[in-house]
């Protein structure tokens, strides 16, 4: 993947060091701790992952990504844990980051990444550090989301929060992009306290597996502003699968065309819902923030090297 990914190294006394190298990366501010476990397996408990994910006392991240050998023989398997230790099946921004690392390592223009949600194909872009990922087809049936009860039309389901005669939010679109999403269409994404309503909606009984909750405002032609409460992670600066879900839901409901720019707090993602095969293509910037090492016994950690040079690319490159 890169020289910075080394398995546990023998120290000068011949003992195996417990200090393990990692990368800190982000996709538009959606940040990740990345391990290379292809030659040296790594399994951490939920409590350890949560401790590392704590932004006050640990490294701090939205998701922890473990890159492993693929059982199917493709370029790599990507295991994803939220900062609370829970494991999830898909993360679009992380897929772009890992795709970039694998392509740089192999000197390739495309790689295939195995996830619990299926195989994803990542492609390089003519723009620096900008990666496109084929996220596959959206799942749109009620039992694919999944929902706890049947709805024939998932473009708008019966769900609201607040008083019956004056709900705060209501009638979301629902889409599965490897994980479940509910999108509430609003006029101003900042007019709502998503930190308060997000957890309530994430764990609503209608979502047996929980859900990612998005507020979406179509403010221009194929321009959509989005704010996301991410299942198991909370408020996030960017969520790739949420951007894909919003773009698909907007196109289904004729709010936008099949290609949209999704404006997240961390920056823009360009999403194309390809008409030829219904696959969703996500394009956006990636960043290596720094290299580091963690003592797996004490969880002490330190930065060991800088990441990407400044001013080499910007989130606007995704447009």
UniProtKB/TrEMBL annotation:
Site, as annotated: Could be important to modulate the pK values of the two catalytic cysteine residues: 181, 230
Localization annotation: Cytoplasm
Q: Where do the catalytic residues lie?
A: 91, 239
The answer to whether keyword Ribonucleoprotein applies is no
> What GO CC annotations are associated with the protein?
cytosol
Keyword Transcription assigned: no
Please state what class of enzyme this protein is: isomerase
Chief place of localization: cytoplasm
Which pathway does it take part in? Amino-acid biosynthesis; L-lysine biosynthesis via DAP pathway; DL-2,6-diaminopimelate from LL-2,6-diaminopimelate: step 1/1
Name the reaction it catalyses: (2S,6S)-2,6-diaminopimelate = meso-2,6-diaminopimelate
Q: What is its EC number?
A: 5.1.1.7
Where, in this chain's numbering, is substrate bound?
30, 63, 82, 92-93, 179, 212, 230-231, 240-241
Q: Which UniProt keywords apply?
A: Amino-acid biosynthesis, Cytoplasm, Isomerase, Lysine biosynthesis
Q: Write down a Pfam family by its short name.
A: DAP_epimerase
PANTHER family in alphabetical order = DIAMINOPIMELATE EPIMERASE, DIAMINOPIMELATE EPIMERASE, CHLOROPLASTIC
Listed NCBIfam families? DapF
Please give the subunit comment from the record: Homodimer.
Q: What does this protein do?
A: Catalyzes the stereoinversion of LL-2,6-diaminopimelate (L,L-DAP) to meso-diaminopimelate (meso-DAP), a precursor of L-lysine and an essential component of the bacterial peptidoglycan.
What is the name attached to this protein's record? Answer: Diaminopimelate epimerase
Q: Which organism is the protein's source?
A: Roseibium hamelinense
The gene behind this protein is dapF
């Amino acid at each position: 993947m890169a020289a910075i990914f080394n398995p546990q190294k023998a120290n000068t006394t011949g003992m195996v060091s417990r200090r393990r190298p990692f990368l800190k990366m982000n996709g538009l501010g959606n940040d990740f701790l990345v391990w290379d476990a292809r030659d040296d397996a790594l399994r951490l408990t939920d409590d350890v992952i949560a401790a590392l994910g704590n932004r006050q006392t640990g490294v701090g991240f939205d998701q922890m990504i473990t890159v492993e050998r693929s059982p199917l023989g493709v370029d790599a398997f990507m295991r994803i844990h939220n900062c609370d230790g829970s494991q999830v099946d898909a993360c679009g921004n992380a897929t772009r980051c890992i795709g970039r690392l694998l392509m740089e390592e192999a000197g390739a223009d495309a790689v295939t990444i195995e996830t619990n949600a299926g195989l994803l194909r990542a492609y390089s872009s003519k723009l620096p550090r900008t990666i496109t990922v084929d996220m596959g087809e959206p799942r749109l049936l009620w039992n694919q989301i999944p929902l706890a009860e049947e709805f024939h039309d998932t473009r708008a389901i019966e769900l609201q929060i607040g008083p019956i005669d004056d709900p705060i939010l209501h009638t979301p679109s629902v889409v599965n992009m490897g994980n479940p999403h509910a999108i509430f269409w609003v006029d101003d994404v900042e007019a709502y306290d998503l930190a308060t309503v997000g957890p309530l909606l994430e764990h609503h009984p209608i979502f047996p597996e929980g859900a990612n909750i998005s507020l979406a405002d179509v403010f221009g032609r194929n321009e959509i502003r989005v704010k996301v409460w991410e299942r198991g992670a909370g408020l996030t600066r960017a969520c790739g699968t949420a951007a894909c879900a919003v773009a698909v839901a907007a196109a289904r409901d004729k709010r936008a065309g099949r290609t949209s720019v999704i404006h997240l707090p961390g920056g823009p993602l360009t999403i194309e819902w390809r008409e030829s095969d219904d696959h969703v293509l996500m394009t956006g910037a990636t960043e290596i923030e720094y290299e580091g090492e963690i003592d797996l016994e004490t969880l002490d950690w330190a930065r060991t090297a800088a990441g990407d040079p400044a001013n080499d690319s910007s989130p606007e490159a995704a447009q």
